[in-house]
Write a structure and sequence with these properties.
The chain contains 22 helices and 23 strands. The termini are far apart. The chain is globular. α8 crosses α9, α10 packs across α12 and α16 packs parallel to α17. An 8-stranded mixed beta barrel has the order 15-16-17-18-19-20-21-22, surrounded by 5 helices. The protein has a 5-stranded parallel β-sheet with strand order 2-1-3-6-7, with helices on both faces. β18, α17 and β19 form a beta-alpha-beta unit. The N terminus is likely disordered. It is α/β, with parallel strands linked by helices and 577 residues long. It folds into 3 domains: 144 residues, Rossmann fold (3-Layer(aba) Sandwich); 164 residues, Alpha-Beta Plaits; 243 residues, TIM Barrel (Alpha-Beta Barrel).
């Protein structure tokens, strides 16, 4: 029986979203709503935080019922997301399985219209809650705007921003995530007020606020704390270097003059950054440190930013600068492939080559490969570099084939990141389709340092390439956690013993035992085995005694540029008839 039949017309057009990870609770609430309101246009269920947020972003609802506990995330955070996205949000009812006064207070402070205990829900209670919420919404919206929003810019104010900061801190602790607190202050804003007047200064602040809102990501939060000071939360960031990119995009906002009263006004900003958990584990520390870093940026000449942690500041700026240079080197074709021979210990001849990426530093030396590859893997640049390496290696093999040299195999290192996109596999398939003779000369090395996820999709990609004739090897075998799982799950042909094991087989009984075991695994699974890092003849002799079929290392040759490879090969063949 409907509790309030006189409201049928109003309620019949309502769309309600229930976010609850318990289906039984959803069914109970839906039935209570139907009993309380009669015919309802629709009641939509989202069974997780992310599903709820997706529904909020894509559909319009008149009411939200949010469970507080949604897996590892809190419904409180979802309230914050709703309030951040919509200037005036529909009524939000917080649901909880237990009475918690603090959660109740937090929910109301963040903007929830009511806090109800699931076990106490009745049809009359729901009808009354909805009726009162609808009646009070206009007034509540006005009061909420005064309490939570800056009246000049429309941004969040200090009070609600501090709540967002606390909520972000709690969520980051649970999910083991990083975030940054940025304090942004306009440089010499007082002179603008003095020269153009306070109305012009206010107009400038509103335009700064508009640019900040437009450039920030959905997950970021910006507030005006007062005067010309803004605070920003940068969330969902995996690497410290990414904070630099985001902050530099904020600095770039001030490169274009602001139009105030039809006059261009140039203004710059200084920013300080404190990172959780690097700098502090509490709100007070993060606020204090980002403020200190901002003043440090002003001391450095303004129009810049500074991290509170100076070591991190130097490291992240260095990495970011190196990434920019690496990107430029890729565009200018300044990278090159060096080739290191793999030697057959059975025939004492060259069995294949490994193509290794090198980046000249312009001073007669080379950039640290491990360093710039790590930086590339922290961004999408590794995908472009991987494609470049593949294409260069294929061109070299084709050149050899034109010269009548058809027995040279080349292995190239493939990052797990490349298999996380469909582009790489499709690109290889297309290339091999046009040049089918290349496949038998290619070996893809999958490093164990950054493991490839054992998923059906990845297995399918590897099998597709394997069917083309491309061989696969496990690089750095024996040092990671997934060695055996690689051999079981993926179509592998070659095992490469990590150099840290090879180098110690004459001194360490443990490494000797590991080396023997890996060779035995290769024999049992009918896989080739290559020992990396062979630098002395004694180690080579020992490997041969152990039955290791192949070796690679400085004993034979360092990685060589292509123009020196034939000279080395002629010398090697003369000294190893």
């Amino acid at each position: 029986m409907t509790i309030n039949s006189s409201s049928n017309i109003k309620y019949s057009k309502m769309r309600i979203l229930i976010v609850d990870d318990d289906e039984d609770d959803f069914i109970i609430i839906s039935e209570l709503l139907e009993d309380a309101l009669g015919k309802i246009d629709s009641v939509v269920w989202a069974n997780s935080y992310d599903q709820g947020l997706e529904q909020i972003e894509t559909l319009d609802f008149d009411f939200y019922f949010l469970d507080n506990r949604l897996g590892a995330k809190l419904g409180l955070g979802l309230i914050a997301e709703i309030k951040h996205k919509f200037s005036i949000a529909p009524p939000i009812i917080m649901l909880s399985g237990v009475a918690d006064h603090q959660t109740d207070l937090n929910a109301m402070e963040l903007g929830a219209d009511d806090y109800l205990i699931k076990s106490q829900l009745t049809s009359p209670l729901l009808e009354r809650t909805i009726r009162y919420s609808l009646r009070a919404k206009a007034q509540e919206s006005r009061l909420r705007k005064l309490a939570h929003f800056d009246s000049l810019t429309g941004l969040y104010n200090r009070s609600i921003f501090n709540e967002f900061l606390r909520s972000c801190l709690e969520q980051s602790k649970r999910l083991n995530q990083k975030f940054a607190l940025v304090t942004l202050d306009l440089d010499k804003f007082k002179s603008i007020n003095d020269n153009y007047g306070h109305p012009a200064g206010d107009q400038l602040l509103t335009k700064v606020a508009s640019r900040l809102k437009n450039i920030l990501r959905r997950t970021d939060i910006v507030a005006r704390l007062g005067g010309d000071e803004f605070s920003i939360l940068l969330k969902d960031v995996k690497h410290d270097n990414d904070f630099v990119k985001l902050v530099e995009s904020l600095l770039a906002l001030f490169e274009v003059p602001f139009q105030v009263d039809s006059k261009p006004i140039n203004v710059t900003s200084s920013m300080g950054i404190a990172i959780y958990p690097n700098d502090s584990h509490n709100v007070e520390g993060l606020v204090s440190y980002s403020d200190m870093a901002m003043y440090q940026a002003k001391d450095e000449g303004r129009n810049t930013f500074s991290f509170y942690n100076q070591k991190l500041h130097s490291e992240t700026k260095y990495k970011h600068d190196l990434e920019i240079k690496l990107n430029q080197a890729l565009r200018n074709d300044d990278l090159s492939l060096f080739y290191q021979p793999v030697i057959s210990l059975i025939t004492d001849s060259v069995s294949s080559y490994e193509a290794l990426l090198r980046w000249p530093d312009g001073k007669g030396g080379m950039h640290n490969t491990e360093e710039f590859i790590t930086i590339a893997e922290e961004s999408n640049l590794i995908l472009e570099i991987g494609s470049w390496v593949f294409n260069q290696a294929c061109k070299q093999i084709q050149q050899w084939q034109k010269q009548g040299i058809n027995d040279r195999k080349v292995s190239i290192n493939i990052s797990a990141h490349q298999f996380n996109t469909d582009h790489f596999t499709s690109m290889v398939e297309a290339y091999i389709s046009d040049h089918p003779t290349l496949a038998a000369s290619l070996v893809f090395e999958l490093t164990e340092r950054k493991s490839l996820a054992n998923t059906e999709e990845n297995i399918n990609k590897l099998q597709r390439l394997s069917k083309l004739g491309i061989a696969f090897s496990v690089d750095d075998f024996g040092i990671g956690h997934s060695s055996l799982s690689y051999l079981r799950a993926f179509p592998m042909n070659i095992i490469k013993i990590d150099r840290s094991i090879t180098a110690n087989i004459l001194e360490s009984t443990e490494d000797l035992a590991l080396c023997k075991a890996i060779i035995a695994i290769g024999q049992a699974l009918n896989m080739d085995v290559i020992a990396e890092g062979v630098e002395t003849n004694d180690i080579a002799v020992k490997l041969k005694q152990l039955g290791c079929p192949h070796a690679q290392g400085y004993l034979y040759s360092r990685p060589l540029p292509i123009e020196k490879l034939d000279t080395w090969l002629n010398h090697f063949e003369q000294t190893h008839p």
